[in-house]
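Hypothesis: this fold can be encoded by more than one sequence.
Test: take the structure tokens below, design a sequence, compare later.
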């Protein structure tokens, strides 16, 4: 084939001429670079290849990573994982081969991506997020993504979202905002984990996390400073009272002193806030994760203690009374999962008191059906959004819309098994959730999210809005 025939076959002559004319009109200083970029933009962007692999998350447990290629570049994403999964969330696909990674390998999920998902998605436009996600849902054919694996589907969905943003030449958070129909962008208030218990730590604290929220900061940058200073002063206080061993950290970076009660932990945190000089500018939140110590209809606050007294069993009514008293004494503004995941009645009764934000995690599992039920029945007033519980970016956007339309708060949340992927930072800004929970202001996989938010705030410049006192309703 001659050069002229090649040009005619691919209609290159007209395209090159258009690119040269555009360079002339723009008075391009580097016409070759200008023409190259102009030609790239004229090519329809499609997914050309998807390659998955098994990597390790922050706990040293396997998870799925995906490289998604378009004719504009390569885009990488990884799926996070929780300490436990519930019956109402999308299913992680694990190998179950105890001879490898103690049964926790994800080679089946990786194979599904490389052999099934890739074939279905190659040729699709990465800007069409909902179509990509629906194609994977259709391919899976199960309600809980148990065929392909939610870990496989999510990693591809996030990678496609990044590719879509690149094709549109906009930041990832802006692309997410476009997908959701949002016009405003808000930097969330970070809920920094400072003391850990429950399944996240080896101490005797029954509840899972005590967090601090710098709602009085004037910017996200100042919020990070306030959180970091308080965190390090808390470390000093714990050393004073419990010795250096009390500063061992949990899976998400919170300190794990062997305290004997919840009030002792809250006292430590309050002292650190006061010592930092922030007073009412920092509020406190708790993730109780009460399902983990619910036995029948009662709650065993000594469930982690080797020397159980048998005197610390509480009814749901006792727990509600305890929370009410704690909110009077400490600046607690949010309590997550105060009761068992199926105890809708007491969660509703406690929410109706209007004492604080009541957030559903195990209760809702980011599941739209359970979220709709909770909205209809006024069960709680905030959603804890964990993208791996629902499985795709599109479904995450939809469940956030449900919550927002009900005037709920939304907490964009990490998982205990995290990766260096900072996607949820952009998600929180793009959906203006107002709150983000990504662990302590330490450990690289946690800081990846907070540091990305610092970059986003810098990029937005004068347009940056920090949720601050309006953290619940954005």
């Amino acid at each position: 084939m001659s050069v002229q025939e090649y040009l005619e076959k691919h209609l290159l002559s007209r395209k090159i001429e258009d690119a040269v004319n555009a360079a002339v009109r723009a008075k391009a200083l580097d016409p070759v670079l200008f023409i190259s970029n102009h030609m790239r933009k004229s090519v329809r962007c499609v997914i050309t290849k998807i390659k998955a692999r098994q990597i390790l998350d922050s706990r040293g447990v396997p998870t799925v990573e995906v490289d998604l290629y378009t004719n504009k570049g390569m885009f990488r994403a990884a799926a996070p994982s929780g300490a436990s999964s519930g019956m109402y969330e999308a299913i992680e696909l694990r190998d179950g081969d105890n001879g490898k990674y103690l049964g926790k390998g994800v080679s089946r999920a990786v194979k599904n991506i490389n052999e099934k998902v890739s074939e279905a998605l190659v040729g699709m436009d990465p800007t069409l997020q909902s179509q990509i996600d629906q194609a994977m849902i259709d391919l899976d054919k199960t309600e809980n993504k148990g065929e392909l694996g939610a870990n496989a589907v999510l990693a591809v969905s996030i990678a496609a979202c990044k590719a879509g943003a690149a094709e549109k030449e906009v930041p990832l958070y802006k692309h997410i905002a476009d997908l959701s129909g949002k016009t405003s962008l808000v930097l969330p208030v970070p809920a920094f984990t400072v003391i850990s218990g429950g399944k996240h730590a080896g101490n005797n604290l029954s509840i899972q996390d005590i967090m601090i929220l710098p709602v009085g900061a004037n910017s996200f940058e100042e919020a990070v400073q306030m959180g970091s200073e308080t965190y390090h002063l808390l470390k000093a206080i714990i050393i004073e009272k419990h010795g250096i061993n009390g500063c061992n950290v949990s899976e998400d970076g919170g300190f794990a002193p062997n305290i004997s009660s919840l009030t002792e932990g809250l006292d430590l945190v309050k002292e650190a806030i006061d010592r930092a000089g922030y007073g009412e500018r920092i509020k406190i939140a708790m993730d109780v994760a009460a399902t983990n110590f619910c036995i029948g209809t009662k709650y065993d606050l000594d469930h982690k203690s080797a020397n159980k007294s048998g005197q610390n069993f509480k009814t749901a009514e006792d727990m509600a009374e305890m929370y009410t008293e704690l909110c009077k004494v400490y600046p607690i503004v949010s309590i997550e999962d105060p009761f068992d995941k199926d105890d809708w009645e007491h969660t509703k009764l406690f929410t109706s008191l209007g004492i604080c934000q009541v957030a559903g995690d195990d209760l809702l599992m980011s599941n739209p059906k359970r979220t709709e039920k909770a909205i209809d029945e006024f069960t709680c007033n905030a959603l804890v959004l964990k993208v791996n519980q629902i499985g795709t970016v599109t479904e995450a956007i939809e469940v956030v819309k449900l919550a927002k339309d009900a005037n709920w708060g939304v907490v964009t949340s990490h998982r205990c098994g995290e990766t260096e992927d900072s996607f949820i930072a952009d998600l929180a800004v793009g959906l203006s959730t107002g709150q983000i929970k990504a662990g302590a202001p330490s450990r690289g996989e946690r800081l990846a999210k907070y540091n990305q938010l610092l970059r986003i705030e810098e990029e937005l410049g004068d347009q940056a809005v920090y949720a601050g006192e309006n953290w619940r309703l954005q």
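The mean pLDDT is 92. The first strand starts at residue 47 and ends at 56.
Hypothesis status: open.
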